[in-house]
Amino acid sequence: MTADAFQTPPAGAHAAPARGIPPGLHFIATPIGAARDITLRALDLLAGADVLAAEDTRSLRHLMEIHGVALKDRPLVPYHEHNEAQALPRLMRALQKGKSVVYASEAGTPLVSDPGFGLARAAIAEDLPVLAAPGASAVLCALTVSGLPSDRFMFAGFPPSAKAARQSFLSGLAHVGATLILYESPKRIRETLRVCVQCFGAEREAVVCRELTKRFEEVTRGTLADLVAAYDGRDVKGEIVLLIGRGAAVQADAGTVEAALDRALATMTVKDAAAAIADAFGLPRREVYQLALARGRAGDSAE
C-alpha cells in the first residue's frame, strides 16, 4: 500500500472507540492506493484491538501514522506465507484467550491474493469468531470502471509465470461464461495479452487497469488486439488488473448437453442444474429444465 502525496493526514489522532472491540478475528480491508480510502470502522478496529497482525507491518504502521492511530504497547505481528508456521500459533493463542485480533492485508481486501486464508481457516476450525470490515478491493474497483458486464464475474488470480503453464491456465478459462478478472505483473502483461489473443480471440473485449486510485491511474479499454498494440514496446510500471469480457456461448450437440446435465444433477437440484447448463451453453432455460426433469426421472427409475 502506498499513500499518494496528495493525501494529507487528518488533524489529531483517531481515538479508540468508546466500546471495546469484541473478541475474535477481525479482517480489515486497506487502501489499494489512496490512503483516505480506509473506512472509519477499520480505523476503529486498528485503534482498539488487543493485537494487530499484517502481511506487511511497515505498510500498516505507515497507514496508522497517516490517520493518527497510535500503536502504543500493543503487539504488531507480521503474518505472511514465509512465517506462517511461527506466527499462526501466536495469533491463535491470543484468540483462544478471548482477545481481539485485527489482520490487515498489504492492500485491498484480505484473502484475495493474500495470505490471511490460513488464519481464517484455523480460527473457524476452532469455532472462534471471524468478522470482516469491508472496504477497498482492486477486483471490484476494476470491475466498476471497466464497462464490462458485472452480473457475473470470476476472479482467477495471477496467471502462472511459466509460459506453458500460463497458456494452459488461460486456455482453460476461454469458455467461462463470465467477465474474467486477473492480476498480472507489469513485467508480464505484454506477453499475457498476446497469449490471451491466442486463447480468447483478437476481438474479445478487454480492459487493463493500472495503478487504480493512485496518481497515475490508467484504464485502457478495447479488444485484446487493441490492448496488445497499446502496450507493445511500453515500459510498464505499477499494479495491474486485467479484465476479459465473456465470450459467445459454447455450442454443443445434444449428447454433450445431456452429459453435462447428468453431471450437474449429481450434485444440484433440477432447477439449479438446468439454469447452470442453460447459461453455460446459451440455451433456453425452459427447454433445458424440461430435459433435466426427464433425465432426473430416468435416473430415479434406474435406481
TrEMBL record:
Kindly give the InterPro entries that the UniProt entry links to this protein: 4pyrrol_Mease (IPR000878), 4pyrrol_Methylase_sf (IPR035996), 4pyrrole_Mease_sub1 (IPR014777), 4pyrrole_Mease_sub2 (IPR014776), rRNA_ssu_MeTfrase_I (IPR008189), RsmI_HTH (IPR053910)
Superkingdom of origin: Bacteria
Give any Pfam family that matches: TP_methylase
A single cellular component GO annotation:
cytoplasm
Could you tell me the keywords of this UniProt record? Cytoplasm, Methyltransferase, rRNA processing, S-adenosyl-L-methionine, Transferase
Per its UniProt record, what Gene3D superfamilies does this chain match? Cobalt-precorrin-4 Transmethylase, Domain 1, Methyltransferase, Cobalt-precorrin-4 Transmethylase, Domain 2
Task: Give TM regions.
Answer: none
**Catalytic reactions of this protein:** cytidine(1402) in 16S rRNA + S-adenosyl-L-methionine = 2'-O-methylcytidine(1402) in 16S rRNA + S-adenosyl-L-homocysteine + H(+)
Q: What is its main location?
A: cytoplasm
All copies of the RsmI HTH domain together span 252-295
UniProt lists the family membership as follows: Belongs to the methyltransferase superfamily. RsmI family.
What job does this protein perform? Catalyzes the 2'-O-methylation of the ribose of cytidine 1402 (C1402) in 16S rRNA.
What NCBIfam families has UniProt attached to this entry? 16S rRNA (cytidine(1402)-2'-O)-methyltransferase (TIGR00096)
What is the name listed in the Swiss-Prot or TrEMBL entry for this protein?
A: Ribosomal RNA small subunit methyltransferase I
Q: What lineage is this protein's organism placed in? A: Bacteria, Pseudomonadati, Pseudomonadota, Alphaproteobacteria, Rhodobacterales
